[in-house]
Amino acid sequence: MSDDVKGTRTYRSKVRQEQARRTRQAILDSARRLFAERGYAATTISAIAADAEVAQDTVYAAVGRKPEIFQLLLETAISGRDQAVPAEERDYVRRVRAAPRAREKIDIYTRAVREIGERMAPLHRILREAAGQSAELAAIRDSIAERRAANMRLFAQDLAATGDLRDDLDIDQIADVVWSTSSAEFYGLLVLERGWTPDAFQQWLSDTWHRLFL
User: Fold this and answer.
1) Global pTM?
2) What count of other Cβ atoms lies within 10 Å of the Cβ of residue 8?
3) What is the C-alpha to C-alpha distance for residues 102 and 181, in angstroms, rounded to an integer?
4) Which residues, at least 6 apart from 157, have a Cβ–Cβ distance to it below 8 Å?
5) Which of 18, 27, 152, 168 is the Cys-Cys partner for 175 at CB 3.0 to 4.6 Å?
6) pLDDT at 86
7) How far is CA 83 from CA 69, 80, 89, in A?
C-alpha cells in the first residue's frame, strides 16, 4: 500500500473522528440547555435530537439513553473536558499533589471547586429533583457522592502529609468537611440561591479551610 493511500485514509479517519466529536458535543449542549429549561422528565430524546439537528438514532449511537446523557453531562462538568477524566489525571489534582505546603494545596483546590461548581450546580439542581423519580439517576447521584467521598479522603491525607494541619483533627473529619463544603449543592446554595459571586465563594472557602485545618 502506498504512503499516499495510507495518508488519505488517516486524514479521512481524523475528519470522521472530528465530525463525531462535534456531533456528540452538539447533542450534549442541546441536552444541557433543554434539561435546564424543561427539567429532566419533560426533556425527550426526540427534543434533544431536534435541537441538535440530528436523528434520534444518532443521539443513541453517539451518547446513549437519557440517563447516560445526563451522567455524561455530570462527568464532563466535573472534569472540565468534553469527556470524563479520572480524578488522578485532572490537571488541578496533579498540581495539588505537587504543591509542598497545605496552604498551597487548599488554594489550588478551592479554585477548582469554584470552577466545578459553576458547571455542576445547575445540573445538580436538576439531579436533585429528578433522582426522586428515577432510580437510575438516584444511583448515579449516589455513585458520584461515594466517589467524591473517597477522593476527599485522599485530599485530606495529602494535606496531613505536609505536617501543616492542626493536631486535634483526624483524616475522616477533614475529609467530611471538604466533601460537604466542596459539593455542587453547597455551591448552589450560596451562589445560585443566596447570590454570592463565584469569587466570593472561592475566597470564603479558602479562608474557611485555612482557619479550620491549619
Assistant:
1) 0.84
2) 11
3) 17
4) 171
5) 152
6) 81
7) 12, 8, 12
- To the nearest whole number, what is the mean pLDDT of the chain? 90
pLDDT at 4: 55
Number of other residues whose CB lies within 10 A of the CB of residue 119? 18
3-state secondary structure of 206: helix
Cell of 8: 488519505
pLDDT at 173: 95
Please calculate the CA angle 192-194-197 and round it to the nearest 5 degrees.
65
CA-wise closest residue to 213 among 149, 151, 148, 160:
160
For residue 60, name the pLDDT band (cuts at 50, 70, 90). Answer: very high
Annotate 51-103 with DSSP letters as a single string. HHTS-HHHHHHHT-SHHHHHHHHHHHHHHTSSS---GGGSHHHHHHHH-SSHH
**CA–CA dist 119, 99 (Å, integer):** 25
Grid cell, residue 172, equals 475522616
pLDDT, tens only, 3-41? 555 556 665 677 777 888 899 999 999 999 999 999 999
CA distance 145 to 64: 23
Full DSSP string of 129-190: HHTTT-HHHHHHHHHHHHHHHHHHHHHHHHHHTTT-S-TT--HHHHHHHHHHHTSHHHHIII
Question: Amino acid identity of 74?
Answer: L
